[in-house]
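Researcher: Quick test of sequence recovery. C-alpha cells follow.
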C-alpha cells in the first residue's frame, strides 16, 4: 500500500496519505486485538518516517491517540515503544525530493509546537522516562544481587 501512497499528483498523494494515517490511527484506537493495534503502530511509524505529508497528518490527528496510548497502555512495552518511535519520526525532519520544494509548512516544527503546548504531554513523557529509569535500575539491581548470591553460593562449596 505504501507504493500507492506515493504515486499520482501532489494533491492525490496528500489525500491518500491523510486517509491512510487516519485509518491507522483508528486501528490503533479501536481495534480489539492488541496485535492488530501494534501492527497499525508499526505501519504508522514507517509512513511518518518517510513522508512530510504523513508527518502533517499525524500532527493534525495523531497526538490525542498517542497520548491515550502512553497513558492507558503503559504496561504494553511494544505499544509504548511504537508510540515513542512514531513520535520521534513525527519530530524528525525529512528532506526528500519527492516531497517537493513548495512545501512551506515544516511539519516537524508544527508537531514540536503542538507537543510543547500540551503541558500534560510533557509531564506524561517525563513520567515515562522516570518509569523506564526505575525499571532499568531495579532490573540491574536485582541482576547484581542474583549474581552476587550465585558467586557466594559457589564460593562456599
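Model:
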Amino acid at each position: 500500500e505504501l507504493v500507492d501512497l506515493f504515486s499520482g499528483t501532489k494533491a492525490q498523494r496528500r489525500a491518500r496519505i491523510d486517509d491512510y494515517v487516519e485509518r491507522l490511527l483508528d486501528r490503533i484506537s479501536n481495534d480489539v486485538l492488541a496485535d492488530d493495534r501494534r501492527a497499525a503502530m508499526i505501519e504508522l511509524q514507517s509512513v511518518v518516517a518517510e513522508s512530510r505529508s504523513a508527518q502533517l497528518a499525524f500532527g493534525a490527528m495523531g497526538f490525542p491517540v498517542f497520548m491515550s496510548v502512553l497513558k492507558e497502555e503503559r504496561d504494553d512495552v511494544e505499544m509504548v515503544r511504537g508510540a515513542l518511535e512514531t513520535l520521534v519520526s513525527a519530530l524528525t525532519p525529512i528532506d526528500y525530493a519527492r516531497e517537493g520544494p513548495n512545501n512551506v509548512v515544516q511539519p516537524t516544527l508544527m508537531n514540536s509546537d503542538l507537543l510543547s503546548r500540551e503541558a500534560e504531554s510533557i509531564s506524561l513523557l517525563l513520567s515515562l522516562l522516570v518509569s523506564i529509569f526505575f525499571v532499568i535500575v531495579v532490573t540491574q539491581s536485582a541482576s547484581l544481587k542474583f549474581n552476587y548470591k550465585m558467586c557466594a553460593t559457589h564460593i562456599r562449596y
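Residues 119-157 form one domain.
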